[in-house]
Write a structure and sequence with these properties.
heterodimer; A: alpha+beta; Rieske Iron-sulfur Protein; 4-stranded antiparallel sheet; 25% helix; B: mainly alpha; Cytochrome Bc1 Complex, Chain C; Cytochrome Bc1 Complex, Chain D, domain 2; two-stranded antiparallel ribbon
């Protein structure tokens, strides 16, 4: 008869067995977690970013904004066409450029450039940006992401490699030097509603107007 | 004893499953639960099984590689015999599964079935709903086309807004720094192994609890649930007014299951498979990505939320919604079950249904998106140019060329991002038009830098003609006074 304070030989072995399994599981967990998080750890300290050639600067006339494509520097064998990336290159003058990410700063849809009106427009939720990438209207909270660039020997290279998203550290790196001049002199946009004689275009009333003009049918 | 019976006995001697299966099938249920309102749970299970079968069939051909997936879907659509039909069944099955799960949930909510002792059944059900939505999203990714590619971008942009951990979550989600091969592979693993495995486990738990706790009785107004007495009352009910589930209630489940399968097949036959749309090539930017049917409401919501509300709403909204659903049975685990005496419950369901329905409907034609080709594709309707001056016609040209049309409609064509301009001259005076065009405001970009003074003059001249016949354009009263004074005081400067 066993009393409560003693432990049987079998009971001890079972506990040891559980302990042994626990140790092995912990030991195996390390490589499993390491494997699962590899896409994060590899990107530490911007390990994914590198300088990518975009082409000779003569391809980009002064004062114009043109679409350019580059191959993402980090490639795996099954990537297919997804490694190709587009960006908008604005040559302000001489060696002064602005390289905008194609992704809208709202939710990443591809923005399109309209040279006639000097606007980038997003097809998804209607974000719009001025030619210098600053926010013009719509849901984006900020201007377009910008890639850092270098001009050497008539070639333009950009630092790229990560999908620009609103929260990524590269997002603050991209487009850090906000094009303030243009923003201040021209595009106060939404701030003007309060001093605006006509409040017809205030966003809530826009919908009412639209409802009356064009029924949802 | 027949041969079949002998074989059956041979198996049962070893498996010993016949008795528990018979017991489960013939367990007594309250008679009034043999109702057409009680068929949605089994219908959801039926569609889930359909998804498992068609999913396995698709996996025979589909290649989960970013370079091959799109072509393998094309092969399924066009080369493999009836591949299109299996794809269509799987695609429509997913739509039906989301719909049936939601209907089931609404029925359970309105019939008070989440109350004691079925709280955990409800909570497991909430996770089943989340997994169903997870399957829907990951399934859309596996249809690796333009919509899937940019949809992932939207997902990444939302995930990146999580404070501190955001960028790491994005890399974990994408399997790397960009949307590429690793992204598709991990969504394949999620869609084919991880989530279905969890779904099967949770469905078993859900069903086990339905069997152990009994199906919810038909709620009677005034018959309140009390934790102390409910179980005894329920057993008395099944004893006094119960009937075996098989065959008393099961025939309705069987009929409805067959009906749902037929409906999926009919949609698949008639409408065909979903996509794939264009190749997932991010250098092709002429695309307007749109999510699948069940996420259209979210797409709509994201365009209507004010920018400052968006990140909090995206990050806190789902947490609050899920917490609310999980906590529901603890907040109202007892009391009235009948929807006839729960007006707030009914109104909540109606409010959510109307909100989701409206947002989904709006997302069908996206009034918030500029029409990218309207400026070159939709000419100014003739009636707006009839009898106009050369300056006004020049203004109409500016109106088109400067892409105003992408956001503003004239005569029912063009974008709906901004207000329709058919009668803008009635709403805004000349000065207000000039100010609005140059400075923008109220969600309109400022055009000051992109219009020469001559272009602005012409454009505003054209806009001033946009008023219904017989309705005078808006005029500033002060202007008349000023002009009159000028006429009186400076007759030499009269125009």
């Amino acid at each position: 008869m066993l009393n409560e304070n003693t432990i049987s030989r079998r009971g001890l072995f079972m506990k040891l067995g559980i302990l042994f399994n626990g140790l092995v599981a912990t030991a195996l967990a390390a490589p499993i977690v390491g494997f699962l998080l590899s896409s994060i750890t590899r990107g530490r300290a911007s390990g994914y970013l590198s300088w990518v050639p975009l082409g000779p600067i003569k391809d980009f006339p002064e004062g114009e904004t043109r679409l350019a494509t580059f191959r993402n520097p980090f490639v795996t064998p099954t990537d297919g066409k997804t490694v190709g990336t587009a960006c908008w290159v604005r040559r302000v003058e001489g060696d002064q450029f602005q390289i905008f990410a194609i992704n809208c700063a709202h939710l990443g849809c591809p923005v399109r450039w309209f040279p006639q009106s000097g606007l980038f427009m997003c097809p998804c939720h209607g974000g719009a940006y001025y030619r210098d990438g600053s926010r013009a209207s719509g849901p984006p909270e900020r201007g377009l992401f910008e890639y850092p660039y270098k001009v050497q020997d008539g070639m333009i290279t950009i630092q790229a490699g990560e999908l620009p998203t609103p929260g990524s550290p590269t997002a603050s790196l991209l487009g850090k030097k906000a094009p303030c001049a243009a923003r201040n002199d021209l595009a106060p946009g939404n701030d003007l509603i309060s001093i605006d004689g006509s409040k017809l275009y205030a966003s809530s009333e826009t919908h009412a107007l639209r409802g009356e003009k064009k029924p949802w049918a | 004893m027949g041969l079949i019976e002998q074989i059956g006995q041979w198996f049962d001697q070893r498996l010993q499953l016949a008795a528990p299966i018979r017991e489960a099938a013939e367990h007594p249920v309250p008679r009034n639960t043999a109702s057409w309102f009680y068929v949605f749970g089994s219908a959801a299970l039926t569609v889930f099984i359909l998804q498992l079968v068609t999913g396995i069939l698709l996996a025979l051909i589909y290649v989960p590689s970013a370079s091959e997936a799109w072509s393998s879907l094309q092969a399924l659509n066009h080369d493999v015999t009836l591949g299109w039909f299996i794809r269509a069944m799987h695609g429509w099955g997913s739509n039906f599964m989301v719909a049936v799960v939601l209907i089931h949930m609404v029925q359970v909510f309105l019939f008070g079935a989440y109350k004691f002792p079925r709280e955990l059944t409800w909570i497991v059900g909430v996770f089943l709903l989340l997994m169903t939505l997870g399957m829907a999203f990951s399934g859309q990714v596996l249809r690796f086309d333009q919509d899937a590619y940019w949809g992932l971008g939207i997902g990444a942009s939302i995930a990146s807004r999580v404070p501190i951990a955001g960028p790491m979550i994005v890399k974990l989600m994408l399997g790397g720094p960009i949307i590429a091969g690793a992204t598709l592979s991990r969504f394949f693993a999620l869609h084919v192994f991880v989530i279905p495995g969890m779904l099967i486990g949770f469905v078993c738990l859900h069903l086990l609890m339905v069997l152990k706790l009994g199906i919810n009785e038909w709620p009677m107004p005034g018959r309140l649930v009390k934790k102390t007495t409910y179980v005894t009352e329920y057993h008395e009910l099944t004893k006094s007014n119960g009937a075996p589930f098989v065959p008393y209630a099961v025939w309705k489940d069987l009929f409805f299951a067959a009906f749902i399968l037929l409906a999926v097949a009919a949609c698949a036959l008639y409408f065909g498979p979903f996509g794939p749309t264009g190749r997932p090539d991010p250098t092709v930017i002429q695309t307007a990505p749109k999510p699948d049917y069940f996420f259209l409401w979210l797409y709509g919501l994201l365009s209507y939320l004010p920018p400052s509300m968006e990140t909090p709403a995206l990050l806190i909204g789902p947490v609050v919604a899920i917490a609310g659903l999980v906590l529901l049975p603890f907040l109202s685990g007892e009391g009235e079950k009948s929807w006839r005496r729960r007006p707030i419950a009914v109104l909540t369901v109606l409010l959510i249904a109307v909100t989701l329905g409206t947002l989904t409907h709006l997302a069908g034609f996206t009034p918030w998106s500029p029409h990218m080709n309207a400026w070159s594709g939709d000419p100014v309707p003739q009636q707006f140019l009839h009898g106009s001056t050369a300056l006004e016609r020049q203004g109409a040209l500016v109106f088109q060329v400067k892409q105003c049309r992408n956001c503003h409609s004239l005569g029912e064509s063009g974008g709906q991002r901004g207000p329709a301009l058919d009668s803008v001259a009635v709403r805004l005076t000349q000065d207000q038009l000039i100010r609005q065009v140059i400075q923008g405001g109220g969600n309109m970009p400022a055009y000051g830098k992109n219009l020469s003074p001559a272009e602005t003059t012409a454009l505003v001249a054209f806009l001033e003609t946009l008023h219904p016949r017989g309705q005078a354009p808006a005029r500033e009263a002060a202007r008349d006074v000023a002009l009159r004074d000028e006429r009186v005081n400076r007759p030499d400067r009269q125009p």
